[in-house]
């Protein structure tokens, strides 16, 4: 493998590092832009001068300066792309009455109690006159018939003070603030029905509006032909990228079996569209200027389909790659696939540098990169003579290539591994393409009554067969290894091992074996140290779970969460707020105890009697109900007193009974009540901790 054949490696790497640096250096946006422009200019001039006057002795200088130029370009572009840095961002303009004009920029998402929409702020009321501004926010509208009718391009007048999105409130919790920040969304608001009105419709991009409208009509075709339930949900996801109607349990099955990528439009789907268009438009190859016309039509169709399906990062990647291939063929130039892959990544990041943080973008490029780099080597390991067996092996080799490269990153993000991924990919290979073509056929014959009904019935059975096959695989014993925790350093070490072994295979150089073995030793050391930490950990945590009291006690790998029954039964709430911390702490099984019941555990060194708890050498109590008794002769000494469920008492009343080192207000309280207690504690010089405002309370106890 000769890396000189791949110039975009040298271009993309420093450019990407510059973007990552800008995203992770604290307050990088506060660096004066004039200094960035100055460095950018000096680097550009230096490159020009070094190419003209540098001697052989300094031949390394042009390359180094170009690398610095690319790093600076990525860094600068990331800061420029961050809309919160712009002077006209609505957060920098103080609206004294909370009046804004906003435009719906994405189709609304209907949830159980609300309707979620991403909006762009276009104007803000400033001193009784409208001022232009920009910036995005996410709005949760009260769920009613009017909010459910919201469409892309609707212009709204809202009355609200936007709130900055909170960072994670619990240890290892999913960082929703960062996730939205990478989409240039930094604020949110909840609006009741009397706090907004629709001013007009049809204010969006005409092409995107048409694509959105067409998508709704295509989805309606399936509904008219009795494609309903989860068959409808999966069909709409595979063909048109609409995943909001899929049942959480079905998503869990697809995720656990390793087939979750099928439910999001990706390279496979765009590739099938590309193949179909190539066949349909092949007659243009015989016409003068036909190849150019074919290329233009295919480019338009590919990008229109990408827009139709919501422009997810994986779709953008596939569309960009195929666009390069189409352009290359129309110019009669065959470019290397890896160069096309890297070039498409570079141009996509120029357009939107924040995409580098998108999990779909990362996994999509890694999967294709793995197939390009090692698929041939894996395929050559076995050469069956039987035609069907050969095709099955080719499919298996592609699956192995993609899985090998994406697995470390996938485990870093999702903490699980589908053990039967090879079997899953065979099922996907059989069903996915057929389901997609069957869905397209239903759309094409939708105006023919009986044919559309029969074809829709076939589609339903195909999707049903795929769902049942995926569910069967996920239900097999040991189908999923869950609770796997690796950190960023360990992920990097695993990738060093993989690439060192690849280079050892291709180049046969012994030093790659040394690199692989050294990295393996470091990885083993990291795992051993982590296991040692898990065995010695002792923690007390008051979680920040909305409208819920949840107190966890951890001793080594043992734990218990004392909470009400609702949290124990709500897998989604537990998964979002607590599960990641359990994975981080090496806890594989969950134990719950009810707030109203007594509990005793010798393993945890924990005793709970009514509202009093002894954990290790810590004494604590939680108060959710209050009986007004006379003052006690001696106050009860506690390390922690937890106030919950808006208990009707003042801090002065509490201090007549308890002598607590710290009073904790848990997340079952309302904000106004916790704020009131804060004020009282401050006046009485009583130490306190507000979980609603500061996130989970975590104390790591000293051993013994």
- State the share of residues found in helices, binned by percent: 40-55%
Distance between the termini: 57 Å
Q: In terms of per-residue confidence, which ranges show pLDDT below 50 for 5 or more consecutive residues?
A: none
Number of strands: 23
Count of the domains: 5
Shape: globular
Rounded to the nearest angstrom, the radius of gyration is 29 Å
Summarize the biggest pleated sheet.
9 strands, mixed
- Find the structural class using helix and strand composition: alpha+beta
Number of helices: 23
Calculate the mean pLDDT score and round it.
86
| Strand percentage | 15-25%
Write the layout of secondary structure elements.
Layout: H1 7-24, H2 33-53, H3 60-81, E1 99-104, E2 109-110, E3 114-126, E4 129-132, E5 136-142, H4 145-148, E6 155-159, E7 163-164, H5 176-181, E8 185-191, E9 196-200, H6 206-224, H7 229-240, H8 248-257, H9 267-280, H10 290-308, H11 313-330, H12 337-351, H13 359-379, H14 387-414, E10 416-418, H15 421-444, H16 449-475, E11 480-482, H17 488-507, H18 510-536, E12 538-542, E13 550-555, E14 558-563, H19 565-569, H20 571-584, E15 592-594, E16 599-601, E17 606-609, E18 612-615, E19 618-623, E20 636-643, H21 651-657, E21 658-665, H22 671-684, E22 688-690, H23 691-694, E23 697-700
Parallel strand pairs: 5-8, 14-15, 19-20, 20-21, 21-22
Antiparallel strand pairs: 1-3, 1-6, 2-3, 3-4, 3-5, 6-9, 7-8, 10-11, 12-13, 12-23, 13-14, 16-17, 17-18, 18-19
Helix pairs in contact: 1-3, 1-12, 2-3, 6-10, 7-16, 8-16, 9-10, 9-11, 10-11, 11-12, 12-13, 13-14, 14-15, 14-17, 15-16, 17-18
């Amino acid at each position: 493998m000769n890396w000189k054949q791949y110039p975009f490696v040298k271009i993309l790497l420093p450019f990407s590092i510059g973007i990552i640096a800008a995203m992770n250096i604290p307050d990088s946006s506060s660096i004066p832009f004039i200094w960035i422009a100055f460095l950018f200019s000096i680097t550009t001039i230096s490159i020009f001068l070094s190419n003209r006057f540098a001697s052989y002795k300094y031949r390394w200088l042009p390359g180094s300066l170009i690398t610095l130029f690319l790093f600076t370009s990525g860094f600068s572009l990331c800061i420029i792309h961050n809309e919160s840095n712009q002077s006209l961002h609505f957060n920098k303009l103080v609206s004294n009455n909370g009046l804004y004009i906003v435009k719906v920029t994405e189709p609304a998402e209907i949830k159980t109690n609300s309707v979620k929409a991403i909006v762009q702020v276009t104007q803000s009321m400033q001193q009784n006159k409208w001022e232009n501004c920009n910036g995005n926010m996410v709005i949760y509208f009260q769920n009613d018939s009017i909010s459910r009718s919201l469409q892309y391009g609707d212009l709204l007048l809202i009355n609200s003070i936007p709130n900055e999105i909170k960072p994670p409130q619990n240890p290892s919790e999913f960082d929703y603030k960062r996730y939205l920040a990478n989409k240039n969304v930094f604020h949110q608001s909840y609006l009741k029905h009397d706090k907004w009105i629709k001013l007009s419709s049809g204010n969006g991009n005409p092409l995107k509006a048409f694509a959105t409208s067409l998508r709704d009509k295509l989805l309606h075709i399936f509904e008219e032909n009795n494609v309903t339930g989860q068959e409808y949900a999966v069909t709409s996801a595979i063909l048109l990228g609409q995943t909001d109607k899929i049942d959480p349990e079905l998503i869990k099955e697809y995720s656990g079996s390793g087939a979750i990528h099928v439910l999001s439009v990706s390279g496979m789907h765009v590739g099938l569209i590309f193949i179909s268009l190539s066949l349909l438009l092949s007659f243009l190859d015989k016409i003068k200027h036909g190849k150019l016309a074919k290329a233009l039509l295919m480019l338009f169709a590919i990008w229109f389909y990408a827009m139709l399906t919501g422009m997810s990062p994986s779709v953008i990647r596939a569309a960009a790659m195929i666009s390069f291939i189409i352009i290359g063929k129309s110019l009669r130039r065959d470019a290397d696939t890896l160069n096309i892959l890297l070039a498409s990544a570079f141009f996509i990041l120029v357009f939107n540098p924040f995409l580098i943080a998108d999990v779909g973008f990362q996994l999509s490029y890694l999967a294709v990169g793995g197939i390009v780099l090692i698929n041939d080597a894996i395929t050559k390991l076995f050469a069956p003579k039987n035609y069907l067996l050969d095709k099955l092996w080719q499919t298996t080799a592609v699956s192995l290539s993609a899985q090998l490269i994406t697995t470390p990153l996938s485990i870093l993000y999702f903490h699980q591994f589908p053990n039967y991924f090879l079997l899953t990919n065979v099922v996907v290979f059989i069903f996915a393409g057929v389901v997609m073509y069957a869905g397209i056929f239903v759309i094409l014959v939708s105006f023919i009554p009986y044919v559309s009904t029969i074809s829709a019935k076939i589609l339903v059975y195909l999707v049903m067969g795929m769902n049942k096959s995926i569910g069967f695989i996920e239900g097999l014993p040991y189908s999923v290894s869950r609770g796997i925790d690796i950190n960023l350093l360990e992920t990097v070490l695993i990738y060093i091992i993989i690439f060192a072994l690849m280079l050892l295979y291709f180049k046969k150089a012994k030093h790659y074996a040394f690199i692989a073995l050294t990295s393996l030793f470091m990885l083993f050391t990291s795992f051993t140290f982590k296991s040692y930490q898990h065995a010695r950990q002792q923690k007390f945590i008051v979680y920040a779970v909305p409208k819920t009291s949840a107190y966890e006690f951890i001793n080594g790998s043992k734990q218990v969460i004392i909470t009400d029954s609702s949290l124990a039964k709500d897998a989604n709430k537990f998964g979002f707020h607590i599960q990641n911390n359990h994975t981080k702490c090496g806890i594989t099984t969950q134990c719950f105890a009810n707030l109203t019941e007594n509990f005793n555990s010798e393993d945890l060194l924990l005793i709970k009697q009514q509202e009093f708890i002894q954990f290790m050498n810590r004494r604590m109590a939680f108060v959710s109900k209050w009986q007004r008794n006379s003052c006690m002769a001696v106050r009860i000494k506690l390390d922690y007193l937890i106030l919950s469920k808006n208990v009707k008492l003042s801090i002065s009343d509490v201090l007549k009974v308890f002598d607590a080192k710290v009073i904790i207000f848990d997340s079952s309280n309302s904000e106004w009540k916790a704020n009131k207690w804060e004020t009282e504690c401050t006046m009485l010089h009583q130490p306190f901790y507000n979980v609603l405002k500061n996130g989970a309370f975590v104390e790591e106890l000293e051993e013994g």
